[in-house]
Structure formats: structure tokens, C-alpha cells
Amino acid sequence: WQVWAIYILLAANLSEQQAPKQACPSCNDAQLCNCSSMGLDFIPPGLTAKITMLNLAHNRIKHIRSQDLQQAVNLRALLLQSNKISSIDEDSFQSLVKLELLDLSNNSLAHLSPVWFEHLFSLQHLHLQGNFYRDLGESSPFSSLRNLSSLHLGNPRFSVIRQGNFEGIELLNKLWIDGDNLSQYEQGSLKLIKKINHMVISLRNISIFSEIVRDLLHSVTWLEVREIKLAVETKSLVQNSTRPFRMQKLTCKDAFFTDQSISRLLVLLKEITSLRELEAIDCVLEGKGLWDTKEIARSGQSFVETVTIINLMIQNFHLFFDLEGMESQTNKLKRLTIASSKVFMVPCKLARHFSSLLYLDFSDNLLVNNRLDETICKDAWPSLQTLNLSQNSLKSLKQTAKYVSRLPKLNNLDISQNNFGEIPDACEWPKNLKYLNLSSTQIPKVTTCIPPTLEVLDVSANNLKEFGLQLPFLKELYLTKNQLKTLPGAAPIPNLVVMSVRRNKLSGFSKQEFEGAQVGAVHLSLMECHRSLVVSLLCILVFLVILILVAVGYKYHAVWYLRMTWAWLQAKRKPKRAPPKDICYDAFVSYSENDSNWVENIMVRELEQACPPFRLCLHKRDFVPGKWIVDNIIDSIEKSHKTLFVLSEHFVQSEWCKYELDFSHFRLFDENNDAAILVLLEPIQSKTIPKRFCKLRKIMNTKTYLEWPLEEEQQQMFWENLKRALKS
């Protein structure tokens, strides 16, 4: 508690001396003004027509007045996110006819008024998420925003979407709705929008999900649904939908599926005949693959051509069934990605039915060589051209090459980041292989195992000391992060166009190494070409960094903090309590300068004129002149029986928050120490105290404190309780 008193008192004094002016001088030549995180309580005065961008984010602004932005007629971007805005005068934005971006997110707006946006004819991007409104009103707040391109709205309280809420909006590039707690959706509400390129909606209500999909099939190209927990849906997703359908891509992110819900969803999605791409990212599947494959097969052929699954979580994935019966659903698929999902095998029978698949990505999974024999069996993946097996558990390059040689049309293979460790002298590869990525595979050398048909070869990040292969068709060679001391010979790779040799042990090139051939472009690091220049630049950079650190330290009083920390460490070596003979005061009083009137004119008079009088220590009156302030505080606290803290909103908002990062890591109170007395000058909820002051929040929840009453008849009881606490 002693440390806490020192820091709070000094922080209060310093914050009052360094209090930010309610102005915004941070404008550059292009009239882009950055006034974010300056502790502003209102929009600064003096904004002119020259300003084109104004950033007022992360301040404490509560109200926007009519005159605040009246002169900023050329403003194109206004950032007001993360303030405390709860009210806006209706004509506050009236003069901003050129405004293109308005960000009011993460404020305290309880409603949205159409009048605010009435004159924003040029507005293209509007961010309203993270406020307190529960709905968008009875009509549309956006009816005058004819040029709107992106709209982000919603919050944890947002629960209702009504018909007419989006009237006036015809085309949107992106619509983002945070609707986790959306409970009411009037059918047809989103149908008014004719075209949406990308819509993101977080949603938990499955029935509302179905209604929204029906309303969006004719307008949305890409629908992204987040945080939904899909139940078994029985109604059709295209019922009463406007045709023709436009939806081409459906993404589920952070969603939850069961075997039953995914089976039903696959059936329903076939009705959306325009759908070509399905994507699942960071989803959870609770089940073992017991899908209703008969119903899925009866529902007909899927139109989907691309499926992407990334980081799918399946508990007990090793018990997952082989999806027998799904073969009829794979014929039309052209691109399949299942990454970071613990795939360890694909049954041969299923793999043979991917007859149209051109691209397959199994990166970051659990494939091993003996299972790869089953996954790439004879006649599997017959049309495959590109295969990514990077970041798996493959150990044998010879076996891997043998299995992929069963893919007759394969020309692009990525087996990087597998731990092969060694490379044989001969390997069997697909006849048409043109691209091979063997980077980060721990191979110590290159041999004739590398196929001569290649046009692009990447063997970066291995331990290669030389490269002498004959690759007559090679056009691109990547040798970054190896141990090469000389360049590869030019004759064996006559058609080479691009070669990367960065981060090797090359010390120089000879003309003979290039055999007289003209090099079109060489990209070398500065260190390799201009060593002395680089050293000079590094010295200058170090000097500038030191200069900046000195400047920052001076601006933010780093020396002051270091001295104070040293004083605190010295104080920690002393006994926690001074001997009784050294106690000079009944209490040391810690308070904000903003509360000095109450402390000095009311509390001090009441306590020091009591009978018997109390001896109080006040920094203004009792500190030793000429002595460093930290030493003064430490000595005064040690010589005081109690420490009395006068808490108010001034502490919480003006001082604690500003210095939270500086003081949060120091110990504030001892668990069993009763020498601190808390006096609340005005009601403060413990949750308003910065979270890093966990000790003080805990004490306010568990320790009895005194609250100053406004009623005169209760004040006498307050003084008696305070005097009793001081005597204890």
C-alpha cells in the first residue's frame, strides 16, 4: 500500500502538470490530422476547411455538437471509433458532403438517427458496430446513402432487424452484421438490397439463418456466416426466394456441426444451383462421420466445384469413418483443400471417385508414407494436376515419389517441410512433373533423384553445399538458405531465367561461372554489394535509435520513473512499519488535486479540530522543502499510522488510466495489511477501475470503505466512522 500511495500521488501531480490540451495540432502537410489517444473530452475547436482526414479515435468524447465539424467541409475521412459517444446533434454532419469514410464503432450510441446521415451524399464506408442500439429503428437510417459501398453494424445487444431497415441501399461491396444475439428478423428485410458482393454475419439462431439465406440468394455473391451452431434444418433454403440465384460461395467460420446437421445441410445446399464454393474455417464437427449418405445421394448431384476446409476440429478424429457412400458427390469437384485438420488417410475407394479434381491441398496434416500408399492408390485422383503435401510426416522421399508417380497428369508437387533427411540416387516421378518444392526437407545434397523434366525447382532451406544437376528445361531455381560457396554451373541449366541464392556462403562471382552469358537482373543484398556503406548506415541507424530513445525518455519522464523505481526498491529494504517512537502523524492523505477543496477545507478542518485533534500529513503543507518528492512521500508514509486514500472519478479517469502501464507491475497492497483507509468521495463501481489494478478492485469488493454522504444528517455518522478507523 505504501508503493501504491507513492505512485498514485506522483502520477496525480504529474498528470495535472502534463494534462493534454483540448486541441489537435498533429496535422501533416496533406492535412491529415491524427488526434487519436490524446485524452480528448470533446472534438477540438479550430477545425478548418483544409482538413481532409481527422482521426479522433481512442479518446473520451461523449457528445458531438452541431458546431464541432461545421467548418470541416472538405473532410473525407472521420474516425471516431472507441470513444464514449452517446449523443450526436442532428445536424452535426450536415456540412460534410464530401465525407467518404465515417467510423463511429465501439461507442455508446443507444439509437441511430437517419438525420445524422441525411447530407452525407458521398459516404462510401460506414462503421457502426460495437454500440448499444438494439435495432435500427422503424425505418431505414441509410436511405440517403446512395453511394454506400461497405456497412458494418451490430453489437451484443442488437436483436431486431425490421422490414425497411435497409431501404435506399441497392448495391454494397461488403455488409457486415454482428448479430450474435439476433432474435427477430422480419422476412424480406434484406431483400431490398439488389446486390452484395460479400456479406459477413455472426449468428447463433438457426431459424434466422435460414430466413436470411432465403432473402439473400438473389443478391449475395459470397455469404460468410460466423459462430453459428447448426441444427437439423427441415425447411427448404430456397423457399420463396427470388430467382435467378446469385450466391456462389458460402463460408462457415467458427461454426459447430454435428453428423446430422451436416448431412441435412449438404442436401439443402444442392437446391442453391448457383453455389460453386464451400468453405469451413476454424469449425468444430461433433461426430464420427456417420452421415446420411443415402439421403445425400438421393438428393442428386452437387454443383459445388471448390471445397476448402481449414483447421477443422474433430474430437477422436482417429475414429472418423471413411465416408463410404459419398463417392457420387465427388465427381464434379475440381478443387479440394483440407489443411490443418489432422487428415491421416483417404480411402482408396473414395479417392478414385474424384474424377474431375485438378487441385488437392493436404498441407499441415498427419499423412505418413505407409498411409500415402492407400491415399494415392492406383487410379486415384485421375485428373489431378496440383498436389500439396507440405507440413506432413512423410519420411521417405523415394516412397513419396513412387506413390505420386501414380498420378499421370500431375505437374505441380509441393512436399516441402517434411523431414526426409536423405535423398536416394534414383526416384520414380510423374512423367509430366514441372514444379517441385523440396524446401525445408533436411536433404543434405541433390542427386539424380530430382526429375529432369522440371521447369521450377525449390530446394531452399536445406544443407546443400553444392548444386551440379543437369536440368535442361529448368527456368527457375531457388537455393535460398543453404551452404553454397559457389554458383551452380551454367551449362547444365541452359534455360535458367530466375535463380535465388540469398543467404548462402557465396563470397563472389567469376565471369567464367556465367560463361559469358548476360545476366538480365541480379538481386543481391546491400551487405553483399556495399559492405562499407551498410556498416555506415547501421552506425547512423544506431545513433538515431539512441537519439529517439533519449527523446522518448525525456518526453515520458523515463529518468523520473527510474529514480522512483530505485527509491521504491530502497524502501522495500526497510522495515514495513516504523518504530512507534517515529510515528509523527495519524494519517498520510493521498488525494487528487481536483479534490483538494474537499480535502483541505472540509476533511482537514473536521479532523484537525476534533477533540483530541488528529495529525494529518498533506504533501502541500508538510513535505520538507528541497527534498526529493519520492523521499518525502516514503518518509511521510513511514511516519504515519494510517494512509487515507480519497477516491473519486478524477482518480479513475484522469490519473489511473493514464499511468496504468507505468505502475501496473508493482505490488500495490499486502494481503493482510489494514493500514489503508479508503474514502469514496463519490460512488465508483469497481469495474470502472482499470483491470490491471486487480489488487485495488479486489479490495474494493472485499474491504469495507467509507462513502461520503451528500445528506447533511448522515455526515456526522461518516466523521465518527472515519475517526474510529483512524484510531484503530
UniProtKB/TrEMBL annotation:
<dbReference type="InterPro" id="IPR017241">
    <property type="entry name" value="Toll-like_receptor"/>
</dbReference>
<keyword id="KW-0433">Leucine-rich repeat</keyword>
<keyword id="KW-0472">Membrane</keyword>
<keyword id="KW-1015">Disulfide bond</keyword>
<dbReference type="GO" id="GO:0043235">
    <property type="term" value="C:receptor complex"/>
</dbReference>
<dbReference type="InterPro" id="IPR003591">
    <property type="entry name" value="Leu-rich_rpt_typical-subtyp"/>
</dbReference>
<dbReference type="GO" id="GO:0045087">
    <property type="term" value="P:innate immune response"/>
</dbReference>
<keyword id="KW-0675">Receptor</keyword>
<keyword id="KW-0399">Innate immunity</keyword>
<dbReference type="InterPro" id="IPR000157">
    <property type="entry name" value="TIR_dom"/>
</dbReference>
<keyword id="KW-0812">Transmembrane</keyword>
<dbReference type="GO" id="GO:0004888">
    <property type="term" value="F:transmembrane signaling receptor activity"/>
</dbReference>
<comment type="similarity">
    <text>Belongs to the Toll-like receptor family.</text>
</comment>
<dbReference type="GO" id="GO:0042497">
    <property type="term" value="F:triacyl lipopeptide binding"/>
</dbReference>
<feature type="transmembrane region" description="Helical">
    <location>
        <begin position="533"/>
        <end position="554"/>
    </location>
</feature>
<protein>
    <submittedName>
        <fullName>TLR21 protein</fullName>
    </submittedName>
</protein>
<feature type="domain" description="TIR">
    <location>
        <begin position="583"/>
        <end position="726"/>
    </location>
</feature>
<dbReference type="Pfam" id="PF01582">
    <property type="entry name" value="TIR"/>
</dbReference>
<keyword id="KW-0325">Glycoprotein</keyword>
<dbReference type="Pfam" id="PF13855">
    <property type="entry name" value="LRR_8"/>
</dbReference>
<feature type="disulfide bond">
    <location>
        <begin position="427"/>
        <end position="449"/>
    </location>
</feature>
<keyword id="KW-1133">Transmembrane helix</keyword>
<dbReference type="InterPro" id="IPR001611">
    <property type="entry name" value="Leu-rich_rpt"/>
</dbReference>
<feature type="signal peptide">
    <location>
        <begin position="1"/>
        <end position="17"/>
    </location>
</feature>
<feature type="disulfide bond">
    <location>
        <begin position="27"/>
        <end position="33"/>
    </location>
</feature>
<dbReference type="InterPro" id="IPR035897">
    <property type="entry name" value="Toll_tir_struct_dom_sf"/>
</dbReference>
<dbReference type="InterPro" id="IPR032675">
    <property type="entry name" value="LRR_dom_sf"/>
</dbReference>
<keyword id="KW-0732">Signal</keyword>
<feature type="disulfide bond">
    <location>
        <begin position="348"/>
        <end position="377"/>
    </location>
</feature>
<keyword id="KW-0677">Repeat</keyword>
<dbReference type="GO" id="GO:0006954">
    <property type="term" value="P:inflammatory response"/>
</dbReference>
<dbReference type="GO" id="GO:0002224">
    <property type="term" value="P:toll-like receptor signaling pathway"/>
</dbReference>
<keyword id="KW-0395">Inflammatory response</keyword>
<dbReference type="GO" id="GO:0005886">
    <property type="term" value="C:plasma membrane"/>
</dbReference>
<keyword id="KW-0391">Immunity</keyword>
